[in-house]
Write a structure and sequence with these properties.
The structure holds two protein chains of two kinds.
Chain A lengths: L35 H4 L4 H10 L5 H8 L18 H12 L6 E3 L11 H8 L2 H4 L11 H18 L3 E2 L6 H15 L5 E5 L4 H14 L2 E5 L1 H5 L8 E8 L10 H9 L3 E7 L16 E5 L15 E5 L12 E5 L5 E5 L6 H4 L12 H39 L3 E2 L7 E5 L5 H10 L2 E5 L5 E4 L6 H10 L36 H12 L22 H4 L5 H4 L11 H18 L3 E3 L5 H18 L7 E5 L5 H8 L3 E5 L9 H10 L4 E7 L11 H10 L3 E6 L11 H4 L3 E4 L19 E3 L37 H34 L5 E2 L11 E4 L1 H7 L3 H10 L6 E2 L6 E4 L7 H22 L9 H4 L4 H4 L10 H5 L4 H4 L11 H6 L5 H16 L1
Parallel strand pairs in A: 1-13, 3-4, 3-5, 5-6, 6-7, 16-17, 16-18, 18-19, 19-20
Antiparallel strand pairs in A: 2-8, 7-8, 9-10, 11-12, 12-14, 13-14, 15-21, 20-21, 22-23, 23-25, 24-25
Chain B lengths: L7 E2 L4 E4 L5 E5 L1 H7 L2 E5 L6 E2 L4 E7 L3 E5 L4 E6 L1 H5 L2 H5 L8 E5 L1 H4 L10 H8 L1
Antiparallel strand pairs in B: 1-2, 2-3, 3-9, 4-6, 5-8, 6-7, 8-9
Classes of the chains: A alpha/beta, B alpha+beta.
Chain lengths: ~1000, ~130
C-alpha cells in the first residue's frame, strides 16, 4: 500500500455524472460482462431451477411466499445504474483523484509509515487473509491466531504489561474502554481524571462515553495529583499521555503513585514506536495501557481502519474487553491457540457486560504484528532512532533560529511557537511545498516526523521556518536520560527469524494455509453474511489517493473523500428508507451505540429525560443489551414465542405499562431466527404510540435490500454492517463498519466530529463515537464499488438469490435435520436454523462434534448454538453456486449418516470419527491405528476431499485447559512446547 | 441429582448451610453440571456487607459467565481461596470442598424471614426436575 504502487484502472474517460441507460445484468438481457453475473452464484436459469426444486414456478413466486406482501417495497430503489468493474474503478479513481495526499506531519496519533511490500501483497491484498472470519472455530484458524499472538506479544513487550488483547477499534475508543474497565473495577467510582495533553479526539470520545454513564470527566494538571489524598472511593482513575499530544515526554511516575494511593486506576495512552526508546509504562506503575498500532505498517487511510491496542496488569486481565488469544493444547497434546475468556463478552453477559465490543481489527493487527516480525527489535529501534535523530536536528535548528519549543523532551513531535515569523504564513508555505503541519488553537505549530521523514525533509522544514544551518547544542534534546528504555523487548524467536523477504513470504504463506477462508470454501455462518469480497472492490485500497490521507488533513485536500461519503450516505439512506446516514461508527456495535445515543439525545431535546427504558427481545444478540446500557438505558427483556417470534402482546403490555419512560425498542429484522415477521409494522406502531423510538439491528439486512426497508416498516434508526451486506471482507475478525441511517427527526443527532472535516461536510450535533470523522474511511471504497457495480436491480437480485439459496439448503437438509422456524409461508428468509438436539438425545453426538467434523470435509461450521443452543444457523449468501451448496449439503448428509451409525449401534459415540474430529495428518499417520474407523474415512469422508484436501493443523482444542491456565504471549507457546517435549520424553 | 436435605436453596441454584455459624454458601450440583467445567471464580471481598439477592460472586465456564447471588443478607467473613486456585473443585464437590464463601447472617436473614423464604431440598428438587 505504498503510494508508489498506485494501481491504475483501464484508461478510459472518467464518467462523473452517470446518465447512461441501466446496464444491470438483472434486466431482460443478461450482460455477460456485468459484475452481477460474477457476484451471484447462480444465473437466472439456475436460480429458476433451484426454485423449481422447491416446488415454485418462478423465483418471484418463492419470494412472494417468503416475504410478506404487507412489508414489501412497491417501487425499485433509486440508485445509479450498475457499472461494469472497469468502469466503476475508473469512476472511483476519478473521484478520489480530487484528494491530495500530502506529507502530513500533523501527528495526533496518526503517523505515516512504510508498509513493507511483502506484507502489503501477502496479507492486505491476499484473500487468504482478508476473507477469513473471526477465529471462533479455532482449529481452522491457527494461522491468524498465531499472527494475533505475535501482535499481543509485541504489545506486552513494548508496553511492559502482563497481558494484551488482540486489538480494539481505534485509540480513542480504546481509551473509553479503559475508562469503562475502571468503572467496572470500582463500582462506587464517579470521577475520571484526564491529565492535560490528551489527544482532543480521544477526549471527545471519552466525553461521549462518560455522559450516559454519569461519569464526571475532569481535565487536570500535575499539581492536582498531590491533592488527591488517600482512598477516595469516588475516584475511578486517570488517563496519562506518554508522549502527550504536543509531543512532550514527562516522567509521570510520581503522579501515578499519588493516584494509586487514592485508589485510582492508572491508564496510559502511548505510542508504540516511541516505546522502543522510552521506559515503558509497565515499569512506572500503569494498570492499563492503550494506543494505536497504525504506524507499524498500516496506511493512514483517512482515519482507518487501524488496530488499536490495550494491555493491562494481571489484576485487570479478566475485565479486558474484546478478543484475547490464548495458548492451550489439542486432544493429542499439541500446543494450539484459541480465543480465551469468551464468556466475558457481551454475547454471554448481555446487559451486565462492561463493553459492547464484539469485534477486533484482526487484519490490521496481523499487519502491525508482522511489521514487528519483519523488522525485529533491532530494526524497530533503528527506525525509531532515525526519526528521533531527525527530530532532534530539527529542534536544535528551530531553537538556534530563536523559535520556542514546548518541550525539550520529545520523541518525534515538536510544538513550536514561531518567533519573528507568522505561524499562519509558515503553515501556508508548508502546504504550498506539500506539508501539512498541525495548527494549534493558540497559534503554535505542531510537527510530527515519521518513518518516511528524511534529512531532505528536515532541510525543507527549516527553510519554511527561516532557520539556518546551525543546530546549536542539541545534547539536552530528545529522550530524557531518566526515561530511556533499558529493558529488552521482542526477544521471542519469531521476531528474529523472518527478516528476509523469502523467509517472510513463506512464513505468511505457512500461516495462511492453516486457515479456512473464502478462497477455500463457502463459510455458511448464519447472521454473518460471508458473501463475495470481489477483487475490484478491494483494489482501490491500494491507491495512494485512498490510503495516503491523514484524517485531520485540511478539508480542501480531501474533497474526494467528501464526495465518496456523500454518495454512500445517500445510497444507504435510500436502501434503508431513511433521511440521513452517518458513516462514522467503525463497527456494528459502535453503530448500535451511536443509534441509541441519537434516540437518547432526541428524547432529551424534547425534555423527555425520563425515557430511558429499552425493550429488547430475549432472542436479540447480546450486543444489543450491552450497547443499551452503555448509552444510558435500562434494559427490559421482551418474550419470544416457541416459534421464535417476538411476543407482540408482551410488547404491548410492557410498552403501555411504561409509557412514561419508554425510550426505545431494539429489534432485529428479519428476526434472529431468520424469519420475516409480519408483526413488525404493528410492533413499531405500539412503540411509537407509547412515546418510544424503534432501533432496528441491521445484521440481517442482506434479506431486505431492495425488497423492504427499515424506514418503511416504521423503524427510526437502523445500523448496517458494511462488512456483511456491503462486501467489506471480515478480515479474519475485523475491520467492520457499522453506519447508522436515521429518519429525518433524528438527523441532527447523528455523530458529529470536532476535528478535521466531517465526512461529507454536513455539520452534525451528536457526540463523536470514533476517533476519525469517517471512522474506517478507506474501506468505504469497498461498499461504494459494490453498490456502483450492482445498481438497484442487482442489489435486489442478490437479496432474492440469498433467500432462494437459504431455502434450497433448508429443503435439502430437512429430511435429515429438522429446520426450526419458518415464516407463515413455510419458508425461511436468508438463513435457516437446523436442530441437532433430537440427534444428540439419541446418539450423544452434539453440535460441536458436527462442527468439527465439517472441518474434515474442508468446511467452516455454520454459526453454532446461536440463537438457539444445540443448533446450527446456515446462511449461504447469494454468492455461492449450486454445486457449492450441494457439496456442503452432501457433507452435512454424510455427517448425518455417521450419527446414524452411532444411533443404530454400528459404533459407539466414543469411537465415532465425529467425536475425534478434526483429524490432522499427523494424527492419522501414527504407526498403530487403533480406532474403529479407517484412516481413510477420517481424512476423506467425501470424494472431493481426495483431490482438494484441507488438512487441519491441530485436532480438537481443549478450551477448559486454556481458560484455566491463561497464557497469552509467544513465550507461553514456547514454554508449552518445551514442556510437552520433555513430557513426551519422560 | 444430589440435593442434600440439610441445606436451603435459592431458585437461582445457590445453596446455604445456615445451621452453622458462619453460614456457608455455594452452588448446587445441578448448577455445576449445567455450567460444565468451571474455569474462573471471582469471590467477594472479606468484610463486604451483602443483602439477599445481591450479586456477590461470578463463576465462569467455557460456556457461560454467571453471577452468584447472596441467598440471604450478612457479612462476608471468609472466602474459599481453594476454588479460586482450582475452580474444578466446584465441579467435583459442589456441596463440600467447592463451597464459595461464608456469611455472618444479619438480622434480616436470621429473624426477618429471608431464610424461611428459601427453598427446602424437596422444593429445590422439584424446581430442577
Amino acid at each position: 500500500m505504498a503510494p508508489q504502487c498506485e494501481t491504475t484502472g483501464p484508461v478510459s474517460e472518467p464518467v462523473l455524472s452517470v446518465e447512461f441507460d441501466d446496464v444491470t445484468g438483472a434486466g431482460d438481457q443478461q450482460d455477460d460482462a456485468s459484475f452481477l453475473s460474477r457476484h451471484l452464484g447462480s444465473d437466472r436459469e439456475q436460480a429458476l431451477q433451484l426454485a423449481a426444486e422447491l416446488g415454485f414456478e418462478s423465483v418471484d413466486e418463492l419470494i412472494d411466499r417468503a416475504v410478506p406482501a404487507s412489508i414489501r417495497m412497491t417501487k425499485q430503489l433509486q440508485l445509479p445504474p450498475a457499472r461494469a468493474e472497469h468502469v466503476a474503478l475508473a469512476d472511483l479513481q476519478a473521484k478520489m483523484s480530487a484528494n491530495q495526499p500530502m506529507r502530513s506531519l500533523i501527528g495526533l496519533g496518526y503517523s505515516d509509515c512504510i508498509t513493507p511490500p511483502v506484507i502489503q501483497r501477502n496479507v492486505l491484498e491476499n484473500p487468504g487473509w482478508y476473507t477469513a472470519y473471526t477465529p471462533y472455530q479455532a482449529e481452522i484458524a491457527q494461522g491468524r491466531l498465531e499472527a494475533l499472538l505475535n501482535f499481543q506479544t509485541m504489545i506486552v513487550d513494548l508496553t511492559g504489561m502482563a497481558v494484551a488483547n488482540a486489538s480494539l477499534l481505534d485509540e480513542a475508543t480504546a481509551a473509553a474502554e479503559a475508562m469503562a474497565m475502571c468503572a467496572a473495577a470500582r463500582p462506587k467510582g464517579k470521577r475520571f481524571l484526564v491529565l492535560s495533553g490528551c489527544h482532543p479526539q480521544t477526549m471527545d470520545v471519552l466525553r461521549t462515553r462518560a455522559e450516559p454513564l454519569e461519569i464526571e470527566l475532569v481535565e487536570c494538571h500535575e499539581k492536582d495529583f498531590a491533592d488527591l489524598g488517600e482512598n477516595d472511593p469516588e475516584l475511578l482513575g486517570a488517563l496519562f499521555s506518554y508522549p502527550n499530544t504536543r509531543g512532550s515526554i514527562a516522567d509521570q511516575e510520581a503522579m501515578v503513585t499519588q493516584l494509586k494511593a487514592a485508589g485510582g486506576v492508572a491508564v496510559v495512552t502511548t505510542d508504540l514506536l516511541a516505546l522502543t526508546l522510552l521506559r515503558p509504562p509497565g515499569e512506572w506503575g500503569a494498570d492499563i495501557v492503550v494506543g494505536s498500532a497504525q504506524r507499524f505498517g498500516v496506511p493512514l487511510g483517512f482515519g482507518g481502519p487501524h488496530a488499536a491496542f490495550m494491555a493491562c496488569s494481571d489484576a485487570h486481565k479478566r475485565r479486558l474487553p474484546g478478543r484475547l488469544v490464548g495458548v492451550s493444547h489439542d486432544a493429542d497434546g499439541r500446543p494450539a491457540l484459541r480465543l480465551s475468556l469468551q464468556t466475558r463478552e457481551q454475547h454471554i453477559r448481555r446487559e451486565k457486560a462492561t463493553s459492547n465490543i464484539c469485534t477486533a481489527q484482526v487484519l490490521l493487527a496481523v499487519m502491525a504484528g508482522m511489521y514487528a516480525v519483519y523488522h525485529g527489535p533491532t530494526g524497530l529501534r533503528k527506525i525509531a532512532g532515525r526519526i528521533n535523530e531527525l527530530t532532534v536536528n530539527l529542534a536544535g535548528r528551530l531553537l538556534a533560529a530563536g523559535h520556542e519549543l514546548e518541550s525539550e523532551a520529545f520523541f518525534d513531535t515538536l510544538t513550536v511557537r514561531p518567533v519573528g515569523v507568522e505561524a499562519g504564513d509558515i503553515a501556508e508555505r508548508c502546504v504550498a511545498s506539500g506539508f501539512n503541519l498541525r495548527r494549534h488553537s493558540d497559534g503554535r505549530l505542531g510537527i510530527s516526523l515519521d518513518e518516511r521523514s528524511t534529512q531532505q525533509e528536515v532541510e525543507l522544514l527549516v527553510e519554511m521556518f527561516s532557520c539556518g544551518e546551525s543546530a546549536g547544542d542539541s545534547d539536552s534534546l530528545g529522550v530524557p536520560t531518566g526515561l530511556q528504555r533499558e529493558s529488552d523487548f521482542l526477544t521471542d524467536p519469531v521476531f528474529h527469524d523472518y527478516h528476509t523477504e523469502t523467509e517472510m513470504m513463506r512464513y505468511l504463506h505457512r500461516l495462511e494455509v492453516k486457515d479456512i477462508a473464502l478462497n477455500t470454501s463457502m463459510i455458511p455462518l448464519g447472521s454473518c453474511t460471508m458473501k463475495l469480497n470481489a477483487a475490484a472492490e478491494m483494489m482501490p485500497l491500494s491507491w495512494a489517493s485512498v490510503h495516503g490521507l491523514h484524517p485531520f488533513a485540511p478539508a480542501d485536500q480531501v474533497t474526494g473523500y467528501a464526495s465518496l461519503a456523500a454518495d454512500l450516505e445517500g445510497w444507504l439512506a435510500e436502501v434503508t428508507g431513511f433521511a440521513a446516514t452517518s458513516l462514522q461508527p467503525n463497527a456494528g456495535s459502535q453503530g448500535e451505540f451511536a443509534g441509541l445515543l441519537a434516540i437518547r439525545s432526541f428524547h432529551r431535546a424534547h425534555g423527555d429525560t425520563e425515557r430511558t427504558l429499552c425493550l429488547i427481545p430475549t432472542s436479540a444478540h447480546g450486543t444489543n443489551p450491552a450497547s443499551a446500557v452503555m448509552a444510558g438505558f435500562e434494559v427490559m427483556p421482551v418474550r419470544c414465542d416457541d416459534e421464535g417470534n417476538i411476543d407482540v402482546e408482551d410488547i404491548r403490555a410492557k410498552a403501555a405499562a411504561n409509557a412514561e419512560r419508554l425510550g426505545a425498542l431494539m429489534i432485529t429484522y428479519p428476526s434472529t431466527h431468520g424469519v420475516f415477521e409480519e408483526s413488525v409494522v404493528e410492533i413499531c406502531r405500539i412503540i411509537h404510540e407509547n412515546g418510544g423510538q424503534v432501533y432496528m439491528d441491521g445484521a440481517n439486512m442482506n434479506a431486505q435490500v431492495g425488497l423492504c426497508r427499515p424506514g418503511d416498516l416504521g423503524a427510526d434508526v437502523c445500523h448496517l454492517n458494511l462488512h456483511k451486506t456491503f462486501c467489506i471482507p471480515h478480515g479474519g475478525g475485523g475491520p467492520g463498519v457499522g453506519p447508522i441511517a436515521v429518519a429525518a427527526h433524528l438527523a441532527d443527532f447523528l455523530p458529529g466530529h470536532h476535528i478535521g472535516c466531517g465526512g461529507s461536510g454536513k455539520p452534525r450535533g451528536g457526540a463523536p463515537v470514533s476517533a476519525a470523522a469517517l471512522g474506517s474511511a478507506s474501506i468505504l471504497t469497498i461498499s461504494w464499488m459494490y453498490v456502483a457495480m450492482m445498481g438497484a436491480k442487482g442489489l435486489t437480485e442478490a437479496t432474492r438469490l440469498s433467500i432462494v439459496n437459504a431455502n434450497y439448503v433448508a429443503h435439502r437438509l430437512q429430511e435429515f435435520f429438522p429446520v426450526l422456524y419458518r415464516g407463515e409461508g413455510g419458508l425461511v428468509a436468508h438463513e435457516c436454523i437446523i436442530d441437532l438436539r433430537p440427534l444428540k438425545e439419541q446418539s450423544g453426538i452434539d453440535v460441536e462434534d458436527v462442527a468439527k467434523r465439517l472441518i474434515d470435509y474442508g468446511y467452516h461450521a455454520p454459526t453454532m448454538s446461536w440463537p438457539v443452543p444445540g443448533t446450527l444457523m446456515i446462511e449461504p449468501t447469494e454468492s455461492e453456486s449450486r454445486s457449492e451448496l450441494d457439496r456442503f449439503c452432501d457433507a452435512m448428509i454424510g455427517i448425518h449418516s455417521e450419527i446414524r451409525d452411532v444411533i443404530d449401534g454400528r459404533c459407539s459415540a466414543d469411537e465415532s470419527p465425529l467425536t475425534h474430529a478434526p483429524h490432522p495428518a499427523e494424527t492419522l499417520l501414527v504407526g498403530d491405528w487403533s480406532r474403529s474407523y479407517s484412516r481413510e474415512q477420517a481424512a476423506y469422508p467425501a470424494e472431493w476431499t481426495r483431490t482438494s484436501k484441507y488438512w487441519p493443523p491441530v485436532s480438537r482444542i481443549d478450551n477448559v485447559f486454556g481458560d484455566r491456565n491463561l497464557v497469552c504471549t509467544c513465550a507461553g507457546m514456547d514454554a508449552y512446547q518445551q514442556d510437552s517435549q520433555s513430557g513426551g520424553e519422560a | 441429582m444430589n440435593v442434600p436435605e440439610q441445606l436451603k436453596y435459592r431458585d437461582s441454584h445457590e445453596w446455604i448451610e445456615a445451621n452453622v455459624d458462619p453460614a456457608k454458601v455455594g452452588i448446587s450440583d445441578h448448577a455445576q453440571a449445567e455450567l460444565t467445567d468451571l474455569v474462573y471464580i471471582e469471590l467477594p471481598e472479606i468484610g463486604r456487607l451483602v443483602t439477599a439477592g445481591e450479586a456477590v460472586a461470578v463463576v465462569e465456564s467455557v460456556k457461560s459467565a454467571n453471577d452468584i447471588y447472596a441467598p440471604v443478607g450478612g457479612e462476608v467473613v471468609e472466602v474459599n481461596e481453594a476454588v479460586v486456585n482450582d475452580p474444578a473443585l466446584v465441579n467435583t464437590d459442589a456441596f463440600g470442598d467447592g463451597w464459595l464463601f461464608k456469611l455472618k447472617l444479619d438480622e434480616g436473614a436470621a429473624g426477618g424471614g429471608e431464610l424461611a423464604a428459601l427453598l427446602d431440598a424437596d422444593a429445590y428438587r422439584s424446581h430442577i426436575s
